[in-house]
Specification:
The chain is of the alpha/beta class. Strand 23 (484-489) and strand 24 (496-501) form a beta hairpin.
């Protein structure tokens, strides 16, 4: 019998609801319980697939091909559970499904309204395909007080009544600011946030207080008194130096224990926090470090390459080194400045991306890595740029490019016409953007003698994709004659999935996104190997 934990946020956004949910999930799992994590986003987009990184940050992709909120990446990395399409929903998706039903006459001529139709759809989503899970943690996006969040808050209020208080728990994450001028910690924002939540019919059972410094007992008592919550359930979460401290911090504050106490459940066992302590020590205290240059269009946006940043950290944990990320905007990387900008780097990475902007800077950096034997990892668009660089400078195809960049080029990279998945032909198009890319888990076969096969320790792999363009397989023979191996191919031998340069210490690029499957407790082998090569290059 599943128990439902609803996580809301108040005062300001970006407090860490996703990280808090993920940490709680790990602690409950470690105690022996089965957990599912879900995210309810209040924006009107169907999904974040067409949203700019400036608006949304990273688009996280699941095994089954959903483009989702980046918080699902946190869920996966901390819990180890692969997310599904059914674990993320938006207001846009809810309304889209309702309107389709209305057009088909499924509401039998009734007036379609927010209550009950929208709220019922949300409630159906919350309990969808739940089987033997002990806990379902549902994070509500946005901040209490936002108009767009109201249908979700009403839905979870109703849901709590439907299943009963013995199977539902409300956790409210809020900010308790420190006022430097008066040297005081202020509880009023939290009180007002909870007041607004209670006005909507939701009484939080646990309040998590985000703060810069410890909250004195007097202020905790005040929050307890005026928010109608037991002082044991006023949980502080002080800013940590690394996110990997979060499970340790919440355990010390007994968050997971208070959840079990609320449901009157005895713990099966104590959580294992040793892995997180080891990781934290490596991240914060390792004396060794490597410099990794990330060259892309959005490198200065904190959340644009969230999974990538984390995967590199995971590779550092595996090799017991700190990762110093050198972020370089490809737009402003001139060919004449490449040597100067990349001086002292131990590894170079070109991440995924779309569009023409910044491509020449990326190509120049790849050329520098290739010629100077610097470990290089290209991901998705990074692989396409690596192939174009090699075509131009080694194969001497000066007009080599992608049809995404130029229509008057020799198309080394081109738009997907069609590909197969599960025996069905999938169509890609440049006219319809949302959900038309090659999305989700696809298989690839690695060459027996390749470096990448040695890294994976397997001939057959499955990785997540998110792209619309592919390397032209017809040039394979030309590339391999000059030393660039197509070391990973789709099972039908039509789509290049990985390339590498044989006469190079470590030069690999892949069409897929390995960062989506990397976890702190199980680093992805590509990132572990890349960081190991960078470590040797010091």
């Amino acid at each position: 019998m599943a128990r439902y934990i609803f996580v809301t946020g108040g005062v300001v956004s970006s407090l860490g609801k996703g990280l808090s949910s993920a940490s709680l999930a790990y602690l409950l799992q470690s105690r022996g319980y089965k957990v599912r994590l879900r995210k309810l986003d209040p924006y009107l987009n169907i999904d974040p697939g067409t949203m700019s990184p400036f608006q949304h940050g990273e688009v996280f992709v699941t095994d089954d091909g959903a483009e989702t909120d980046l918080d699902l990446g946190h869920y996966e990395r901390f819990s180890g559970i692969s997310a599904k399409k059914s674990d993320n929903v938006t207001t846009g998706k809810i309304y889209s499904d309702i309107l389709k039903k209305e057009r088909k006459g499924q509401y039998l001529g009734k007036t379609v309204q927010v209550i009950p139709h929208v709220t019922n759809e949300i409630k159906d989503f919350i309990k969808k395909d739940i089987k033997d899970e002990d806990f379902v943690i549902c994070e509500i996006g946005g901040t209490v007080g936002d108009i767009e969040s109201l249908p979700f808050l009403e839905a979870i209020r109703q849901f709590s009544i439907d299943v009963g208080s013995n199977r539902s728990l409300f956790v409210h994450l809020t900010l308790v600011p420190y006022m430097k001028a008066s040297d005081e910690i202020k509880t009023k924002p939290t009180q007002h946030s909870v007041k607004e939540l209670r006005a909507l019919g939701i009484q939080p059972n646990i309040i998590i207080c985000r703060c810069e410094r410890p909250i004195p007992i007097g202020q905790r008592k005040k929050i307890s008194l005026f928010c109608n919550v037991s002082i044991k359930n006023v949980i502080e979460t002080i800013d940590v130096k690394t996110i990997y401290e979060a499970p340790i911090s919440f355990y010390k504050e007994k968050l997971d224990q208070q959840v079990l106490n609320y449901f009157k459940i005895k713990s099966k066992r104590q959580p294992n926090l040793l892995p997180w302590k080891k990781i934290t020590k490596t991240v914060l205290s390792s004396k060794n470090s490597v410099n990794i240059a990330i060259i892309g269009k959005y490198v200065n946006l904190k959340d644009a390459y969230k999974s990538l940043d984390e995967a590199l950290t995971h590779g550092g944990i595996k090799n017991n080194v700190k990762i110093n990320l050198i972020r370089i905007e490809s737009d402003y990387l001139k060919v004449s400045e490449v040597k100067k900008k990349l001086a002292g780097v131990n590894g170079i990475l070109i991440p995924g991306g779309f569009g023409k902007r910044g491509t020449e800077g990326k190509i120049a950096a790849i050329s520098y890595a290739r010629k100077n034997k610097i470990p290089f990892l290209g991901i998705c668009f990074g692989m396409q740029m690596a192939v174009i660089e090699f075509a131009r400078n080694v194969l001497k195809i000066k007009k080599a490019s992608s049809t995404e960049i130029s229509k008057q080029c020799i198309p080394i990279v081109g738009l997907i016409d069609e590909w197969s998945k599960n025996g069905k032909v999938q169509k890609g198009t440049s006219k319809k953007l949302g959900g038309t890319m090659r999305l989700g888990l696809y298989p690839a076969r690695l060459k027996e003698s390749s470096l990448i096969k040695k890294i994976y320790k397997s001939r057959n792999i499955n990785e997540r994709h998110r792209h619309r363009y592919e390397v032209n397989i017809n040039y394979q023979e030309n590339f391999e004659e000059k030393g660039m191996s197509f070391s990973g191919i789709s099972p039908d031998n039509k789509l290049p999935e990985a390339i590498e340069i044989k006469k190079h210490p470590w030069f690999i690029a892949v069409q897929f996104h390995p960062e989506f499957k990397s976890r702190p407790l199980l680093p992805h082998p590509l990132f572990s190997s890349f960081i190991a090569a960078a470590k040797k290059n010091k």
